[in-house]
Amino acid sequence: MKDNSQTAGKWSVLLGAAFLMATSAIGPGFLTQTTVFTEQLLASFGFVILISIILDIGAQLNIWRIIAVSEKRAQDIANIILPGLGTFLAILIVIGGLAFNIGNIGGAGLGVNVLFPGMTPVMGAVVSAVIAIGIFLVKEAGKLMDRFTQILGFLMIALTVYVAFASSPPVGEAAYRTFVPEKIDIIAIVTLVGGTVGGYITFAGGHRLLEAGIKGQSSLPEVTKGAVSGILIASIMRIMLFLAAFGVVSQGLQLNPDNPPASVFQLAAGNVGYKLFGLVMWAAAITSVVGSAYTSVSFIKTLHPMIKKHEKGIIVIFILVSTAIFASVGKPVTLLILVGALNGLILPISLGVMLVAAHKKAIVGNYHHPRWLTLFGGIILVAMAIMSVYTIMNISF
Length: 397
What we know:
This protein is mainly α and 397 residues long. It has helices spanning 2-25, 28-41, 45-70, 74-81, 85-115, 121-136, 141-166, 171-179, 186-197, 201-211, 220-249, 260-300, 305-309, 311-329, 332-357, 361-364, 371-394.
């Protein structure tokens, strides 16, 4: 009975880590990016999704395994490689996390506005920020966060599957163009990868496992399953949303540029669908606010004892600053697309650090990182670096 209880407990933490990573990825940016690129690329967007899934799995497998084996946080690993590198990486991750969170807060505000038209997006953002802050002010916030992300993660997937069926997409064409695309969009690939494993997101689950005590070489099978599960959960949602949007635009219907994902839900399932969108957008945003704040602060809390001592207070400040910036800047739709591209630019740096760490005895001990995984990670690093340069040169701000 004891072994069964321990196994169940370990799987609960693994599922929580996978959902923390997935629901951090499945934010309002995820919903907006998927819808906008589907409208632009039509069935060929399936190819972008396929390539992004392959890149996501390769990046996440490498990063999660090294964190688990070294039993150290990413920034501490980087500091062992080169003093100061961890601090640089942490600052980079926090900047990307803050950018994500501004978009997440904006998305939460849009979701509340759909559900309760009397509330402006800014008012909705403030209410959502208060809810997110509340999660960190209760005891055992980690366990609550795991349960919170699991429930809303399942809810998001279920609602989007419903709308995907309601829009009746040309599934055959989507499947064909996934492997034989009419056009390839490099910026879309960078944005999707950045929105799924870029910036802080890929470390969200890895750090969560570390805190839960799932670490060391003996835990690698579970870590691998958790890493792949997180990507697959996010990918199921991406595919369902793609099919929903494709079903709408293939009928010649126009999406509202001010809120593209809302148009998909409204055009596919009427006003009920529109209200469902509000719930999905809010659920996606609030879980991403939780994941972004939690992981961003986890990156800097080992840099100074005072940060660790006041971790919850800093998380509250992080969310409040994100909310204040959104209230003053606005333009959530544009911002939600750009933050994915921004975090995609960070991935080659963070992945490169972990690949170097994988072959340093001072970090991983007697662990031998699989050659195929190193090669896989190296290919992803080079590909993302090249595509990131292209994105910087061609993206319109």
